[in-house]
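2024-03-11 09:14:02 DEBUG pipeline.ingest accepted 1 chain
2024-03-11 09:14:02 DEBUG pipeline.ingest length=539
2024-03-11 09:14:03 DEBUG pipeline.predict start
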Amino acid sequence: MHGRPVVTSDVEAVPSHPDRWRILVVLVLALLVTSIDHTIINVALPRLVTELGTSSAGLQWVVAAYTVVFAGLLLSAGSLGDRFGRRHALIAGVTTFMAGSIGAALSTSTGALVGSRAVMGLGGALIMPTTLSILVNVFGDPRERAKAIAIWTAVTGLGIALGPIAGGALMRSFSWSWVFWINVPLLIVALLGALHVVPDSRDRNATSIDPVGALLSIAAIGSLVYAVIDAPEHGWTSSTSFGALTVGAVAELAFVGWELRRDDPMLDIRLFRNRGFSAGSVTLAALFFAMAGAIFLQAQYLQFILGYTPLAAGFALVPAALGVLAGSGAGAHLATMVGGRVAVVTGTAVAAGGMAIQAAFTNGTSYVPTGFGLLLFGLGAGIAMPAATELIMATLPAARAGVGSAVNDTVREVGGALGVAVIGSVAASAYSASLHAKLDQLGGIPSGMRAAASNNVGAALEVSRHLATNGVALATAARDAFVTSMTSSLWVSVAGAALATVIAFTYLPRRAAAVGHHGHGHGHRPSVAVHSGHLEGLR
């Protein structure tokens, strides 16, 4: 369209693009918007409770609708980019994300907002794997590519920081809808860059479109998340929850069976036989499970319990981002020096320790345990993520980079969606049980107000303002119940990060392949931590 070169990649050598660093700027800008929208909504959650009357489950769906669609379509989006051109997929993703952002900003109900967030998830699914696959194809030098991947990974940490800060700053003067309007100018710049700077590339041997696989993957992830989010309302053993879990399990089995039977599967399930691929994927999923669930609770804790403004709450989440940024550089260097396995194990262990500090010492009066724990968790996650990402990408040739990056992104999004669903639902159940016990002792609360207060802490604080008597007691009881539920739920995050450590230590390859010995000229992806013996079956 604009005279940009078309790079048709396969298993042969892919030279570095002369404008690769300018291209990287455009890619990380598009990625930054998708990263920001994972966190910017969190500081707006209290406003949604008061202005839209959003329930506890509704809050989880506002967050999860984005990640469920995002995760469910990532594999299909990666295949579309490989087949029809990654530049075109990037342009389509940016345009779709912009439409969803405008729809979300104009929403007047929780349902409309959830639907618009789902559209944003569709756009994000097209953007995220495309940025990484373009990166892999324009950076031919293994060492430059490793640096570019570290930058790509660090941008996710930058989004964690910018999202809450930008959202808090906007809500000082504007309504919550501005957390979505802010996307529009950024996306316009990214769109112009994609049109004028980014080259096109595709896989001549790309798999055919797999709509059945796409539908099955969305059904599996969506049903599971639905079951977990709605379990506190319907009961964990109710027919609704059990039915949704059953649908999710059946859809997942059907997806695996369908992909195994296809000659050109959207996701080659056999890739998971590779220890670096499978262990790296599970490690990333566990880390994002812990992080997404914790931040979902912490954004409410900072505003409802500690009384922070949205802007102050945004700054209070910055230590996690600073940790990720610092850890990303340190992790890439550590992986180069001693191997990816050591980097991933070290990082996940530090992340688990940071989350444990928050779970053990958060008391509802001090920010210190939260801030210090977030810093350690971010540092550990930053150390682990570049090496884990490189392990996943190392299993595929450049021509299949879209699929590899889609898997990398899918496990992150699935982990994040499940983190919000599981940790949020555990917290909701614990909060309701704790508050009911306290209200039984307090007495004098009308049944209607009691039911509203038990939904979430924001609703309880709103109800307390309308009580002539017992208002202060209700507010205190609600805050205490939330802190109790939050600290107990954070131990689930600790378990997720600890599981990542165990898996990385047990299953990641122990010996590292030399960087740069298997460049594009041989059609292999270099890795700082992949034992070449485990890749022979994939070559």
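2024-03-11 09:14:41 DEBUG pipeline.report Residues 1-13, 512-539 have pLDDT under 50 and may be disordered.
2024-03-11 09:14:41 DEBUG pipeline.predict end
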